[in-house]
Amino acid sequence: MSDVLVTGGTGFIGANVARELVAAGAGVRVLARPRGDRRALDGVAVEIVEGDLLEPASVRRAVAGVQTVFHVAADYRLWTPDPAALYRANVDGTRTVLEAAAQAGVARVVHTSSVGALGLPKNGTPGDEETPVRLEDMVGDYKRSKFLAEQVALDFARRGLPVVVVNPSAPVGPGDVKPTPTGQMIVDFMRGRMVATLDTGLNIVHVRDVARGHILAAERGKPGERYILGHAAGNLSLADIFRALAAITGRRPPRFRVPYALVWCSAAACEAIARVTGRPPAVPLTAVRMARKRMYFSAAKAVRDLGLPQTDPRVALADAVGWFAAHGYARG
C-alpha cells in the first residue's frame, strides 16, 4: 500500500522527491505515462501507476488510497510548436490532480510551482514570496502556464484543500537525465561549448535540498502559503557559475560577454528556422528574454519555517558534473 503519490516522478525533481521519500520509509506511488522515460527512477522502489494528467480517470486511480500528493509534474519547455500544450499540461493538469485529491480527501498536497511564477523587485534585490507580480510580467508561455497553475493551486487552498506551494529556484545535482536547461548548460560547459557569457544570473540550489524541501513542506508548511526552495548563497551570476565550473572541471571559463542584442537576434533566427523544421531551436527566444533579468531570490522563509537544508551551491555543481561524467554526458 502506497502512502504517497508523486506526479512527475520520472522527472528531475520528482525522481529526487521519490528517492528521498523511499529512503525515509514511505510507500511511494508514481504516476507515469505508458511510454515515458523512467531512467531517473532506476533503483528506486516505487509503485508505478500508468496514466496521464489529462486523463481524469487515471489520475483518480493514482490518487486513490494515498494520504499525501506531491504534484511535481509539468511540461517544462521554453519552446514548442504548440504553446497550448503547455497550458493543457500545467494548468488543466494541475486542476485535474487537485480535483482528484479533493475528492479522495487527501491529508496534504504539495504543488510544485517555480520561482519563474514569482515577482522580481525593480531595484535588483532578490525576490521573495511577497514580491508583487502579475500575469503580464511573465515571459513566455512556460512561465505564464506555471503562474496560472499556481493560481489554481492557491484557489483550491482558499476553498479548503490543504495545498502548500513550493517554488524551486534552479536545481542542479545528480539524476538530471534529460537534462533540464540548467543541466544542459553544465553539460555544454563540460563539452567546451561555452565560449561566452551573458550578464544574467540564477539562484543555484542542490536538487536534494529541493527534494527535502518538498517533504518538509508536507510536514511543516502552512496550506495556502508559498515557499521558495533555493539557497541563501545561491544567487550567482552566470560568470560566477562558469568560474565555479572551471574550478571543478579544470576547463577555462568563458572569456567574452556577448551583448544581449546579439544573442536576441541569434535566438530569433533560430526560432524562425524551428518554425519551419518543427525541431526545437538551439537557443529559444524565451530563454534569452528571461535572461534580461537576474533570477535572484531569497529562501529565508523556507529556511526559517521549514528547516530547508542549505548545501553549498558549489557542491551542487560538483555533484552535477560528477553525475554527468559518470553517465557519459561529457568528460569530467
Structure commentary:
This protein has 332 residues and is of the alpha/beta class. Helix content is 42%, strand content 14%. The chain contains eleven helices and twelve strands. It has a seven-stranded parallel beta sheet, sandwiched between helices. A three-stranded mixed beta sheet has the order 7-9-11. Helix 1 (12-23) packs across helix 6 (207-220), helix 2 crosses helix 3 and helix 5 crosses helix 11. The N and C termini lie far apart (41 Å).
Q: From the 3D structure, determine the CATH topology of the domain at 4-176 and 203-235 and 296-311.
A: Rossmann fold
Q: So, CATH architecture of the domain at 4-176 and 203-235 and 296-311?
A: 3-Layer(aba) Sandwich
- Strand percentage lies at 5-15%
Helix content: 40-55%
Ranges where pLDDT stays below 50 over 5 or more residues in a row are none
Radius of gyration computed on alpha carbons: 19 Å
Offer a quick outline of the entry.
This protein has eleven helices and twelve strands. By secondary structure, the protein is an alpha/beta fold.
For the structure shown, list the relevant keywords:
3-stranded mixed β-sheet; 7-stranded parallel β-sheet; globular; Rossmann fold; alpha/beta; 42% helix; 332 residues
Layout: helices, strands, pairs:
Layout: E1 4-7, H1 12-23, E2 28-32, E3 47-50, H2 56-63, E4 68-71, H3 84-104, E5 108-112, H4 140-158, E6 163-168, E7 170-172, H5 181-190, E8 196-197, E9 201-206, H6 207-220, E10 226-229, E11 235-237, H7 238-249, E12 256-257, H8 260-277, H9 285-290, H10 300-306, H11 313-326
Parallel strand pairs: 1-2, 1-4, 2-3, 4-5, 5-6, 6-10, 7-9, 8-12
Antiparallel strand pairs: 9-11
